[in-house]
Write a structure and sequence with these properties.
The chain has helices at 19-22, 131-174, 179-218; strands at 12-14, 23-26, 72-76, 78-94, 97-100, 106-111, 118-119, 124-128, 221-223, 228-233, 240-241, 250-253, 257-265, 277-282, 289-302, 307-315, 326-343, 347-350, 353-360, 363-374, 378-383, 390-392. The protein is α+β, with helices and mostly antiparallel strands. α2 runs antiparallel to α3. A hairpin with a 4-residue loop joins β15 (289-302) and β16 (307-315). The termini are close together. The protein is 22% helix and 38% strand. It has a 6-stranded antiparallel beta barrel. It has a 4-stranded antiparallel sheet with strand order 5-12-10-7, with no helix packed on it. The protein folds into 4 domains: 12-55 and 63-86 and 336-392, Beta Barrel (conserved putative lor/sdh protein from methanococcus maripaludis s2 fold); 88-95 and 254-332, Elongation Factor Tu (Ef-tu), domain 3, CATH 2.40.30.170; 98-129 and 221-252, OB fold (Dihydrolipoamide Acetyltransferase, E2P); 131-218.
Length: 397
């Protein structure tokens, strides 16, 4: 019987140092007349361990004939943490994808980046010709200065009118004043106050226009909205760019953090939630394997495939992953800590359940086994086997 030397590691974390401590290769040659077990050099530790405490011994006495001279591989029943996983195929996506356009219309004067360049938040990427916008700023600044001067003159008139009104009021109080002159002083004061209010409003309007013109000048520089990479360059210097309709200039993708999105079948909906652990491997990327957790389970199922989407968040500060890459994902759907386990190839399906061949007195003997969680390559043992007993991989040969 062909020896099995490799076992899946993504379904099982062994509590006693891994498969290397439990798998022992035994080659038994049973002589027809002598009945002596000959062990190969270096494999002497795989001899019959004897009965262990708690072991079930009521096995069926079905042994292999000595004359067949069988060759088989055995492993010990061990305690481990068993994990069942579900496979999926995922795609890496950028967390943010933005197509940049101008807030003002103008002619492109400079494109400072190209496809593949990494950019930082606030970095200038494209410049529009600022000449007309700078003139607009100067015009509005002059208008604001004029409005400010007019307001200052109005303040002087208000102060003069106030003093005249107070003087006429004093004369009226002393009996030397004229009512008409007092009324004229009050009217002049009210007109001065009204004129000041109007000029203050004009100054405020002029300041707002200046701020608007200054902001338009600022908008001639298109900046990166976040740290990312240039995914597409859509214009060159000299081309016109409009704000309505928007002329797209560049496409930026955030690559420091990526989304890993994949789909799972409907029957696993109750086994997967936010926080469920997973592992992934991206082919073609050096050291492309990693681990993470499910961040989002999308609330709607795909009616065509009866599957639901999941998303994990991957930190990509080293920028070794790229949006669009394919990833092989395994999601942990069940965990059994500290349970008895055997390789799945050590069990044979039978009419009543499962059967394992256990090493007893140097011979493989069939024994009924009760199993629990069945993972990719390993099976939880609920009954029929004890820790330390040796079972034959692949049953009889």
């Amino acid at each position: 019987m062909k020896s099995r030397k490799h076992f899946s590691r993504n379904a099982l974390s062994l509590s006693k140092g891994g498969l290397s401590r439990i798998t022992k290769l035994v080659r038994y040659r049973a002589g027809a007349a002598v009945g002596v077990v000959l062990l190969a050099a270096g494999l002497a530790g795989c001899s019959e361990p004897g009965a262990k405490a708690g072991a079930t011994t009521n096995s069926t006495a079905e042994t292999l004939p000595a004359a067949t001279q069988p060759t088989f591989v055995c492993v010990a029943v061990e305690r481990a943490t068993l994990r069942r996983t579900a496979p999926a195929v995922g795609t890496l996506r950028a967390r943010q994808v933005t197509r940049l356009g101008p807030q003002v219309s103008g002619r492109v004067s400079e494109v400072l980046v190209d496809v593949g360049d990494r950019v930082a938040r606030g970095q200038v990427l494209v410049r529009l010709d600022p000449t007309l916008f700078a003139l607009e700023v100067e015009q509005n600044r002059a208008a604001a200065d004029a409005a400010r001067g007019a307001l200052e003159a109005a303040e002087v008139l208000v102060e003069t009118a106030r003093r005249e009104k107070e003087r006429q009021a004093g004369l009226i109080a002393s009996g030397a004043g004229s009512t008409k002159e007092y009324d004229d002083a009050v009217s002049a004061y009210d007109r001065a106050v009204a004129d000041r209010t109007e000029r203050a409003a004009k100054l405020a309007e002029a300041v707002k226009k200046l701020e608007w013109a200054e902001q338009r000048l600022v908008e001639t520089e298109i900046r990166a909205p976040y740290d990312g990479a240039i995914a597409a360059r859509l214009v060159d210097p000299g081309e016109p760019a409009t704000s309505a309709p928007v002329t797209h200039l560049l496409e930026v993708q955030e690559t420091g953090t990526l989304y890993l999105e994949f789909a799972l079948p409907q029957e696993l909906l109750g086994s997967v939630a936010a926080g469920t652990p997973l592992t992934f491997e991206v082919e073609g990327v050096p050291d492309g394997a990693g681990a993470g957790t499910v961040a989002v389970v999308f609330p709607a199922l795909d009616e065509a495939t009866r599957s639901f989407r999941c998303r994990a968040i991957l930190e990509n500060s080293a920028h070794k992953y790229y949006p669009g890459l394919l990833a092989r994902v395994r999601v942990v759907t069940a965990v059994r800590p500290d349970v008895l386990v055997v390789p799945r190839t050590a069990l044979t399906p039978a009419a009543e359940g499962w059967t394992a061949y256990v090493l007893e007195d140097g011979r493989p003997v069939a024994r009924a086994v009760t199993v629990g969680l069945v993972a990719d390559d390993w099976v939880e043992v609920l009954g029929g086997l004890a820790e330390g007993e040796r079972v034959v991989l692949g049953g009889r040969s």
